[in-house]
Specification:
- The complex is a heterodimer.
- Chain A contains six helices and seven strands.
- By secondary structure, chain A is an alpha/beta fold.
- Chain A has one domain: fumarase.
- Chain B is an alpha/beta fold.
- Helix content of chain B is 39%, strand content 26%.
- Chain B has eight helices and ten strands.
- Chain B has helices at 6-22, 26-38, 42-61, 89-100, 145-148, 161-176, 194-205, 216-230; strands at 2-5, 71-79, 82-85, 125-131, 136-143, 152-157, 184-192, 245-255, 259-267, 272-277.
- In chain B, the strands form three sheets. Chain B has a four-stranded mixed β-sheet. A four-stranded mixed β-sheet of chain B has the order 6-9-7-8. In chain B, strands 1-3 form a two-stranded parallel ribbon.
- Chain B is globular and about 55 Å long.
- Classes of the chains: A alpha/beta, B alpha/beta.
- At the A-B interface, helix 5 and helix 6 of A face helix 3 of B.
- Bound molecules: iron/sulfur cluster.
Chain lengths: 184, 278
């Protein structure tokens, strides 16, 4: 069954989501990957005011390709989330509710999702051209000097993702694997 | 002696990059369609269909299939009877890379610690080999680093044996899981030296799908490994399923009496590669 979910997420909408659900997201989100995470955390540690408000935000780990003329953005698929694990807990503490990427998360991040009622979605890695079709606008809102790694505000419509780690401890990667693993 | 302008090499590299960014190899797409037929997981089939739809959409719109158009790896086989003219070969390769990546994402930093983006996706990683003849063959990979990051190598002692090799390959796929955007293509290097075994694994990834190793014992090992990997249940995009890898390719070379070097290089759902002879 496919669920349609509005962004920004709320504690209520996050609670409804179960690992394995296919979800279409509509609304606004932020992009950030390695360099932006590193800078956000160093600004936090220095006690500076962050350039963006993270309350109830969803962060998509992506460094988009340049846009072709007439398009808001170039191909934009997920990058490996695990590299953002060491930076994720402070962001969840600031109210981030949704994360979009691909690949395994650390146990600490999975526990923090339960604690902060947040959710980790997987987008299809390698399907960046199709994913970009669901992005209706894109604007750099911070760290423009980072190029593809700048923080962008995106508007998305029916952006397809799958719930990997929900706020109840469910994990679509381990559940999927258990179902299909053969003993040898 | 035959003369070949390095300008031709530059132009060929630029063209190969542009074409490969938008169009995935035909043998890969064929293997994906076959995988879509046999995948037992419904979610897995949806993932494979999505990736195939993505490939057709990118080709028809002439946009990259993946936002990560990778780092250029250029392998040259240069005939010993060719005289390269009109400038420096290395400069020409980097210039071809800069031109090819003009409209693509810039994913290269100049120093692994200081991490300043070079802003033009150069330099390329270059491997050259001198071969008989008067042709130059260029093999290009636009290597996405989601899968590169999950690749591994190990110097095993001489008597480690084939079972230890198998365990290491399978362990690599398990550790990679969804991170390498499966279904993956697995390139295995066996033998050579520390520097050589990684290149063997990379060369294994450049072999078209559907071509087993010409060495019977390696062809058999490729099949055994493929079955064992697909029994892991990781599946397309790691959401569970029966197609975790599309193929295992092994390249081997002689090695020292003391060692059994093994390297496992992974390719992802954007396995861009191309070849041209000049
Ligand atoms: S690993 Fe490959 S398919 Fe996945 S995001 Fe990187 S380049 Fe694209």
């Amino acid at each position: 069954m496919t669920k349609t979910i509005q962004l920004p997420l709320t504690a209520e909408s996050v609670k409804q989501l179960q690992a394995g659900d296919v979800v279409l997201l509509t609304g606004r989100l932020l992009t950030a990957r390695d360099a932006a995470h590193k800078r956000l955390i160093s600004e936090l540690e220095a006690g500076l005011q962050l350039p963006i408000d993270l309350k109830d935000e969803t962060i998509f780990y992506v460094g988009p390709a340049p846009a072709k003329a007439g398009r808001p953005i170039g191909p934009a698929g997920p990058t490996t989330s695990g590299r953002m694990d060491p930076f994720t807990l402070p962001l969840l503490k600031l109210g981030v509710r949704g994360l979009i990427g691909k690949g395994y998360r650390s146990d600490r991040v999975k526990l923090a999702l339960i604690e902060h009622q947040a959710v980790y979605f997987g987008a299809v890695g390698g399907a960046a051209a199709l994913l970009a079709r669901q992005i209706t606008s894109a604007e750099v809102v911070a760290y423009a000097d980072l190029g593809t790694e700048a923080i962008r505000r995106l508007e998305v419509e029916d952006f397809p993702v799958l719930v990997v780690n929900d706020c109840h401890g469910g994990d679509a990667y381990s559940a999927g694997r258990e179902e299909f693993q053969k003993d040898s | 002696m035959r003369q070949l302008s390095v300008k031709k090499i530059e132009a060929a590299i630029s063209n190969l990059i542009e074409e490969s960014a938008y169009k995935l190899p035909a043998d890969y797409l064929e293997a994906m369609r076959a995988a879509e037929e046999r995948e037992a997981s419904k979610t897995g089939r949806i993932m494979l269909t999505t990736l195939l739809d993505n490939a057709s959409y990118a080709e028809s719109e002439q946009i990259p299939t993946c936002q990560d158009t990778g780092m250029a790896i250029v392998m040259l086989e240069i005939g010993q009877d060719v005289h390269l003219i009109d400038g420096n070969l290395t400069d020409a390769i980097h210039a071809g890379v800069r031109a090819g990546y003009a409209d693509l994402r810039k994913s290269v930093v100049s120093d692994p610690l200081e991490r300043q983006n070079t802003a033009d996706n150069s330099p390329a990683i270059i491997h050259t080999e001198i071969v008989p003849g008067d042709k130059v063959t260029i093999t290009l990979a636009m290597k996405g680093f989601g899968a590169e990051l999950m690749s591994r190598m190990q110097m095993f002692p001489a008597n480690a044996g084939v079972e230890r090799v198998k365990e290491f390959v399978i362990e690599t796929i398990e550790l990679a899981g969804p991170n390498a955007c499966p279904p993956v293509i697995v390139g295995v290097g066996l033998g050579s030296s520390f520097d050589g075994v990684g290149l063997l694994a990379k060369k294994a990834l450049m072999r078209p799908l559907g071509q087993p190793s010409p060495k019977p014992h390696l062809a058999q090992l490729e099949q055994e490994l493929l079955n064992a990997i697909n029994d892991l249940g990781i599946g397309p995009q790691g959401f569970g399923g029966t197609v975790t890898a599309l193929a295992v390719h092994i390249e081997s070379y002689a090695t020292h009496i003391a060692a059994l070097p093994v390297a496992v290089n992974l390719n992802c759902s954007a396995p861009r590669r191309a070849k041209i002879e000049l």
